[in-house]
Amino acid sequence: MKLTLKIWRQKNNKAKGELKTYPIDGIEGDMSFLEMLDVLNEELINKGDEPVVFDHDCREGICGSCSLQINGEPHGPDRLVTTCQLHMRMFKDGDTITIEPFRANAFPVIKDLMVDRSSFERIQQAGGYVSVNTSGNTIDANAIPVNKQDADDSFNAATCIGCGACVAACKNASAMLFTAAKVSQFALLPQGKVEATERVLNMVAQMDKEGFGNCTNTGACEIECPKGISLENIARMNREYLSASLKG
Fold this sequence. Notes:
Layout: E1 3-9, E2 18-24, H1 33-46, E3 68-70, E4 73-74, E5 96-101, E6 109-111, E7 114-115, H2 118-127, H3 148-158, H4 165-169, H5 176-187, H6 196-209, H7 220-224, H8 232-247
Parallel strand pairs: 1-5
Antiparallel strand pairs: 1-2, 3-4, 3-5, 6-7
Domain 4Fe-4S ferredoxin-type: 151-181
Family: Belongs to the succinate dehydrogenase/fumarate reductase iron-sulfur protein family.
InterPro entries: 2Fe-2S_ferredoxin-like_sf, 2Fe-2S_ferredoxin-type, 2Fe2S_fd_BS, 4Fe4S_Fe-S-bd, Beta-grasp_dom_sf, Helical_ferredxn, SDH/FRD_Iron-Sulfur, Succ_DH/fum_Rdtase_Fe-S
């Protein structure tokens, strides 16, 4: 395939960025989107030009690093896949593809297509854990029976990889789906009940502190989420937050 790539280039967060056009040829349909960018960068390096900076790690849809806005959609036109799992067969010969970083004040650009998503880490650190001492102290597994639906919902929430697609898809750049997933995976299990009140209050407070917007109730976050995290988690977090506020 022959393609025309319009790629956002920006030296740093304070510099003014712009879309630059790059023609590329010889792209196979079985290539992943990141492999296509690798081909482009190899050409740029061979020409003595600076390669395009983009974030990646596992390339298996697990780490959540490959956060790219492709033709206006987080992770591109396919569904339930990350950018590294997006194949070039989703595009046609002669297509023009616009590639940008995820847009959110809480995700400042580091360079080109790479953004700083450490705001997600700070939300997690605010309460996304259980205080169980397992260091050198082997203990039996929790013997409290867990309803299967609750266990399934908890595991489904825990599949969130923190890629930020939900934020990029939201016109308010809301992190409600991410935060709700991290709250839900603990709220549904006995191990998470002890710190439930502090958890939801602290994580929501940190989310607001980071500058994320309010939920739009349009559901774009669930549609664009590569792991299909359900909006039900946002409703659960709202209930948890209300209950914690009344207790507090």
